Structure to design on (294 residues):
């Protein structure tokens, strides 16, 4: 008997109800890493963790190459949010922590978001950030300058609680402390 | 100058080899139809459709992708870009309402 073919994993674009384009940025990251589109998301995640998305620290496969400084933080954050990747909300969450830094060039991030059609994803993160860290950049800038291209199925994106750290117990019986996950210290 | 025309002229200058791209969206209307609204020339990008066969294997047409990269770098300060390129199998286009469907012969 023939084995049943495995169903293809839906992409983030599929989940959002969007159409994935042929991404020049995805081609660039595949070329610089030497990894094909199917696995390059793991490499991007590894790079993001190394650059300060510390909440997503994990063991990565040994055959993933080291980070490439030629890839800017803004490009890395946008590349993690590309609709072409197999659906993995951790990529979007890691992008949120990586980009939550005053060192990010917000206008450049905005341009890359438009160019790579991830403005809906970043706009969504920016609005979650507004609840927990209203003045935090680059999110404040994105809220002012980005507009989603179209309505998306935002339930495919991570719940707000996945972008923050929460303490279960606070002194004197207070409510849990909820803190927006900002970028940590880069490894090394 | 019309933004779509400027983007395509820069792309053309950066290309060494011939490339095929089918335009759609505002840029296509601005360049293809004389009666298109004038503000379509203000669009900041050019949307294109790439033939499926042309895209395989993925490492073909490096010249085209390098030209796209150079074009976007060159136009960054003006906020113009060319990145919304789609496989023809992922698109379904309809002529816009209210426009004569014959492209501008000029």
């Amino acid at each position: 008997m023939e084995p049943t073919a495995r169903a293809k994993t839906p992409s983030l674009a599929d989940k959002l109800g969007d159409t994935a384009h042929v991404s020049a940025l995805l081609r660039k990251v595949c070329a610089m890493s030497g990894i094909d589109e199917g696995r390059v998301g793991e490499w991007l995640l590894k790079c993001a963790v190394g650059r300060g998305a510390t909440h997503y620290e994990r063991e990565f496969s040994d055959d993933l190459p080291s980070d490439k400084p030629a890839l800017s933080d803004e490009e890395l954050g946008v590349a993690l949010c590309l609709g072409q990747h197999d659906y993995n909300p951790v990529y979007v969450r890691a992008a949120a922590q990586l980009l939550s830094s005053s060192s990010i060039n917000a206008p450049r991030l905005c341009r890359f978001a438009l160019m790579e059609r991830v403005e809906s994803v970043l706009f969504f993160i920016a609005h979650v950030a507004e609840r927990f860290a209203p003045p935090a950049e680059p999110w404040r800038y994105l809220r002012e300058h980005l507009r989603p291209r179209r309505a998306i199925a935002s339930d495919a994106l991570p719940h707000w609680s996945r972008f923050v750290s929460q303490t279960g117990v606070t002194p004197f019986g207070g409510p849990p402390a909820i803190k927006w996950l900002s970028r940590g210290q880069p490894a090394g | 100058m019309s933004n779509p025309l400027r983007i395509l002229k820069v792309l053309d200058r950066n290309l060494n080899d011939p490339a095929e791209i089918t335009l759609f969206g505002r840029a296509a209307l601005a360049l293809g139809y004389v009666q298109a609204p004038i503000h379509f020339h203000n669009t900041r990008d050019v949307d294109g459709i790439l033939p499926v066969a042309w895209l395989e294997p993925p490492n073909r047409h490096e010249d085209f992708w390098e030209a796209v990269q150079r074009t976007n770098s060159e136009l960054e300060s003006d906020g113009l870009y060319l990145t919304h390129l789609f496989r023809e199998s992922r698109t379904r286009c309809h002529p816009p309402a209210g426009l004569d469907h014959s492209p501008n012969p000029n």
